[in-house]
Amino acid sequence: MRLLIVEDERRLAVSLAKGLRAEGFAVDVVHDGREGLHRAREGVYDLVVLDIMLPGLNGYRVCAELRAAGSEVPILMLTAKDGEYDEAEGLDTGADDYLTKPFSYVVLVARVRALLRRRGSGASPVVRVGTLTVDRGTRRVERDSREVALTAKEFSVLEQLATRAGEVVSKPEILEHVWDFAYDGDPNIVEVYVSALRRKLGAGLIETVRGAGYRLRA
User: Fold this and answer.
1) What is the CA radius of gyration of the chain?
2) pTM tops 0.70
3) Residue pair 218/166 in contact by the 8 Å Cβ criterion
4) Which of 121, 150, 117, 119 lies closest to 133, judged by CA?
5) Can you tell me whether residue 169 is helix, strand or coil?
6) pLDDT tens figures, 59-90
7) What are phi and psi of 208, to 5 degrees?
């Protein structure tokens, strides 16, 4: 899952991004309303965490313009305001949820996961491929009825492959959805995680398609 944080309090934005990445999300961060609107329009995001008090364009405007453009991306608004009219205005412009600062990080993560589940409610959170079971809701993985412990990044890579079982998924596609926009390291990092998954789940489960990417055997 790829998230966009639009927050001008840099320390808060960095802290949120660090925590959400540890949860297995790919996270991009911008500190300006106009840049946030541009990124949200151009990027492929599963959710936007949007502050209201922003330079350039405030969060209400960003949210309203995204909705006017037809974007259905879930939006969680963050603000230091706590009046009921402020909350109503945020929801009226198209936000899906609202969190007032200061807030609990645990609550924020729970709200993010709830919005993502709601968005994907039409599809089962459990993916089954042969004897492999990937539960995206609880982030549990089983192979041959045995639970397999994965790191957050390992789970995210497996999730991309499992939801497209039988298809070839390229390295750039995995990087785009599992790592963040700012990642400029070695793209061969994907191979490291695929190797770890093979050790834990079995060498024959993930096939390398030379020059194209990886395929989870259906």
Assistant:
1) 18
2) no
3) yes
4) 150
5) strand
6) 999 999 998 888 888 999 988 765 554 556 65
7) -90, 125
